[in-house]
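Help wanted!
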Amino acid sequence: MYFKGINSYGDRGMLLDFGDDSSKPISLEVNKAFSTISNLGLPLLNIIPSFNKIVIIFENSEIRDQNKEKITLEMNEIKPQSHKSTNKTWKIPACYDESFALDLKLIQRLHQITKEEIINLHTSENYYTYYIGFMPGFPYLGDIPSQLITPRLATPRIKIPARSIGIAKNHTCIYPKISPGGWNIIGQIPFDIFDLQNPNPSLFLPGDKVSFYSVSNKEFQQIQKKHFSINELIKEYSS
Amino acid sequence: MNSLVISRTGTHLTVQDFGRFHYQHLGVSPSGAMDQRIIKELEKIIPLHHNQFIEFAYVGPSIKIKEGSVKVCVGGNCNMNIQKNNGTQIICHPYKSINLFAGDELNIHNTIDSVYGYIAVEHGLGLDPCLKSFSTDTKAGIGSINRSLEVDDTFEIQGDVSSWDHLSIPNPDYKKETNFKVYPGPQLQFFTDQALQSFIGSAFTVSAQSDRMGIRLKGEAILSNESHDILSEGILPGSIQVPSDGQPIVLMRDIPCTGGYPKIAILKEEDISKISQLPPGSQITFDLQTIY
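Answered by r_m:
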């Protein structure tokens, strides 16, 4: 158990503390608690997991205080090892062509490795979705092989193309939309991962497993033309 | 058929409601009206608002009735007039219902000694919700209309004026508050006693770079003796974060969903609306409330 306790956060917030470190075992416990509390049917406005905290927001302090005991009891019962996962496992096509991989050369120089080695390393891992944040649908995935660990760009880009795959420190990510940002861009995926028309708008959820496989530019274009919806993507690329 | 058109935009013109909830774990900010007191007041005059309010900052828009007739009410401290379809001009006032007819144009000039104002339209603006809310987050591109409103944006109003009677409520006349009692933030212990003394002992000035995401303050630098870079964690509106330059930012309705700066304190929910109305240059102070 990494869970340290529950603190108040302002007059209507609650912060569940899992310590100051970040690791996959901590995140597994955080995401187990996140799904358990989300399914209790409590009158909460938002519940936000991150690497080692969960923030819960209620309408006012009375409702917050009424629900504190229930959440405390539930947290004392949580055993991450008995986690019955409803999470998905994704295999996502990725194109690492130079036209998409804006920072590939920089990473090659920094780590003295070839383009093929970068692709092999990035596609070798089954990543874990720590949480979704920064912008709608943006997954924090990790951990990347140590040979790929790269600091954020010294000067963030003003415009990162939508669907770009980035790496920074020991994480990898996908930008759902065009955005400013400081991650090193190594490729692109051929479809949208956030759809406002869908009641479940985000392709990825905290706790999902995600791996990438390399596709040619031609295959990339073919997949792109299909304009998959979230529901079609679930059928096509997850299990 | 009743319809209205934006004939002049004003500034930061967006559709807002009481907020978009249950999606922050997917990276979607709560958004919603900056000053929620005002839309609650407008509810008393235009109960059939369908949660579709137009928000403006500093300069209001002009709206013109294209067809039919529409009942509206403006909230906030602002001056305005109606250019009637027969050429006459009438002064009108906030918190009083206004019946507008084809060709009439309502001109909202500017907010007085405040920032945000609102328009409630009877039967709403004929919009469909986006992720269960009508609010707009222009940075994320989310909303029934996923951008600021522009000239010629036209709204078809799904209903006729329910009554020609004039309804009004007394002007709420909100007292301008500049001293805020705040609760300790999750990283309060990152700051030395000396830094805390500066935080509660000195005045901060509201910067012109403030927007729906955050109110930037200028004043004595508040420095952490630990770090200004923490692992990102969930944040809520009203949180006061301190980046490495020591100049605090009060996070507002379009918050980023997680943040990596230490949070020294957090405002009470009701004070988020109050602080949103302080124009750049306003001086504010904080009192730390330790027991709650």
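OP: Thanks! One thing I noticed: The longest strand of chain A covers residues 89-94.
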